[in-house]
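Problem 3 from the worked examples.
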Amino acid sequence: MPVAIVVLLLDITLIWHASKTGRLQPWAFIILMIPLVGALAYIVVELIPEWFGSPGAQQARKRMADRLDPEKRYRELCDRLAGSDTIANREVLAAECLKVGRFDEAERHYDHVLTLPMGKEPVYALGKAQAQFGLNRPADVLATLDDLKQHWPDFESAEGHLLYARALAEVGRIDEALDEYHALSAYFPGAEAKVRYGMLLSMAGRTAEARIVFNELLLSMRRAPKYLRDAQAEWLSIAEKQLSA
């Protein structure tokens, strides 16, 4: 396609966009009078700030930054903790350590927080258990979560319940893990718990029950809003593959 036609199509598109967004004056004149340069000016002055200022653009930019330098925030939080060693700063750093796979360090931070008078909170014990799971120590995870339940019997956490079920499966306590998954799948937000439940049923040789779990999940998600299906796409794909296996 000749360059002139490409420039003309670009100009027409941008003029249409300017008219739809209330920017027709003076941009239509500029784009028409200075082909290509006017279009580039419109993109730089109007569109780029709009793109990067929207929540979606900001999230995309953050994802890109995280891929390029995944430990940038970790370093910032280390500096913050060095300047002010508070429970809040240490807990935020510990959570970031979990995100970047620094499980040893995360466990140390949570251990330290739990020794402090104001740090004896169930969420910090749960964080410690998550670090232990990342370190492939499921028996320690169970011990930590059992201790959590003993000290804070009213504390409820779907994530903690899922972690407990996974740790039971990892140490070979399959029947107990299945019981936990069965209870968990009734209230856990999202598809992960049901998919893990179905996969463990399959592993235990209870294939027919597993297929029922996967089919019920996929049927319910077909009636869910698109944004929910998109958010659970990874787990739904696993469920579909399990059914087709």
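Problem 4, a separate protein:
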Amino acid sequence: MKDIDETQAPLLDHLIELRARLVRCILALVVAFGVCLYFADPILGFLIQPLKAAFPAGEGQLIFTKLYEVFFVELKVALFAGFCLSFPIIANQLWAFVAPGLYAKEKRAFLPFLLATPILFGAGAALAYYVVMPTAFRWFLGFEGTAGGLEIQALPTANEYLGLVMQFILAFGMSFLLPVLLLLLHRAGIVTREQLVGARRYVIVLVVALAAIITPPDPGSQLLLAIPLLLLFEGSLILMRFTDRKKIQDEAEPEEPQSAS
């Protein structure tokens, strides 16, 4: 009981600090949500551009089947954009809470991963927006035509389209974080480069299956996700090789003799 009493104050201090940082994260998200809600129409217009480009010029439309549907679509757009806008502040607050408990060497080791995370996520989201979505939407619209004397026309709803866009962006953005995950596991000693090289064939099957699950059912978007993931996997193996070589060199360096007192 004495040990518990002695550690109670530091634990309470940590909990108070965690609460304060969580409050700042929520405030940042609320402020970003409010700003994005004000600009919800331009943001929605930006997200609609891949579908607009897939339709023939002057054609295409988004419909809504419920009176309140567009209102909730704008709320979702504002929340999604607000989270993306406030993510640097949220990540900074989480890092500020965790960093004091790390050694200087550990901070230097984790800092590149923190910097690489938004860059890789943005690269995946950009690939989804500028390449994958226009290609996939053109493929989907190719099913328009006639059947049994009736016209088959694409009339996507605003809510369904937004859900599809968010699925694309999150799927590609999160998938592009594969190198960060692999390098963290390697640095922690959980996996080795030799183990990953030996499991390459299984990784290929897993990546293809993952691309088929998290993307819409068209072969184009599945290949456009699977191929970059395989390239990122191979790039992670190359970085692991350099990391292992540097670790061996550091261990091989003789220690400096201590001066006589």
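Solution to problem 4. Residues 29 and 69 are 23 Å apart (CA to CA). The chain is about 80% helix and 0% strand.
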